[in-house]
């Protein structure tokens, strides 16, 4: 099997990770593109002593560490201003700690594999994750709108959100209900499923909300690869169903950390 065939199934998840790490579709995709260009330029240098997914993330981290990537400017001034604010806030939490948390909680790597990716020992990774979680605990609380039509999942998400110290503005099960709840009680964060109870779309519900005001958004889906195709504008923050509590916690922390709109385009 070719190297391209080996890494292709893992690209949607690398793109998800890159966006969560940078807080931007544009920036995340720029780093992924640079990693792929490095692989094409020197395929013999691709790590073959580990599985393809680990090797792919290793190449990405080499690019990330060098930070020698041309970042395309955001399309509007407001987004650019938020990017600048986010970069100013990077000093508030050690970059390695964010990487360790996202690699383990969101991407599901073991401490050993995460250590390989960021050149740290498993013990160091555990300490870095603890550091990131401590920073999350100090994060300012916000008000959260949940758009989810499955009652058990909605209750689970609500429990996680409340445990993090945030309030719930409401739980919507349809597009119209989500729009109405957002208009009546403006949230500081939205967690949205893709498919809703009446056949409406969580994506459309979020677009309705973002048409009224800016708010960070995290999408929840069983099929993230369907949204990360590169063929259309896509969300920045994605959680895969079934999810772990730690995954939701990490995604919420990143979305609020960057305080940017996970909109499309």
TrEMBL record:
Chain segments annotated as transmembrane: none
Matching SMART domains: REC
Biological-process GO terms, alphabetical: phosphorelay signal transduction system
Keywords of the record: Phosphoprotein
Domain Response regulatory, first and last residues per copy: 143-256
Annotated positions of the 4-aspartylphosphate modification: 193
Pfam families per the UniProt record, alphabetical: PhyR_sigma-like, PhyR_sigma2, Response_reg
Phosphoprotein as UniProt keyword: yes
NCBIfam families: PRK09191.1
Protein name: Response regulator
Organism expressing this protein natively: Glacieibacterium frigidum
